[in-house]
Design a protein that fits this description.
Putative oxidoreductase; membrane; 6 helices; DoxX-like_oxidoreductase; 76% helix
Length: 143
């Protein structure tokens, strides 16, 4: 049985994880051409296709998390996305300058930590304060 405090904490976690990607997706959308250029410099295959997909994942995934819509599936998708962006965007193993390598490594490991948070949401679900809970019979205890 899930306590009310648990659901509140899960809600705060959902919002905390979503804010970063909501902001990032909005910035990518506003600087679309620059984002495509960045993807090209990072060696991302098919940047013209990857850019709208990345923006959609960040914006739609964040909105779904805030409202608790399909949280388990979105949590898994966002975890995969965080790992992929860590590998393509924070490849510290290719950086030769020590200070820069340390900075990029921190961002790489932060992405993996964020992926861990998304995986926890995949396991716990959205909690009672969510659309998912409204769809679940008996008050959404599985959330």
């Amino acid at each position: 049985m899930m306590r009310s405090a648990d659901s509140l904490i899960i809600f705060v976690a959902r919002v905390a994880l979503a804010v970063l990607f909501l902001w990032g997706g909005a910035m990518k959308l506003m600087g679309y051409a620059g984002f495509i250029g960045y993807l090209q410099t990072r060696g991302v295959p098919y940047p013209q296709l990857a850019a709208p997909i990345a923006i959609a994942i960040e914006l739609l995934g964040s909105i779904a998390l805030v409202f608790g819509i399909r949280t388990r599936a979105v949590g898994f998708a966002m975890a995969v996305y965080a790992v992929v962006t860590a590998v393509f965007g924070h490849d510290f193993w290719n950086v030769t300058e020590a200070a820069m390598q340390q900075d990029v490594a921190v961002h790489f490991w932060k992405n993996l930590a964020i992926a861990g948070g998304f995986l926890l949401l995949m396991v716990t679900g959205a909690g009672r304060l969510s659309v998912d809970a409204m769809r679940t019979p008996r008050g959404g205890l599985r959330g």
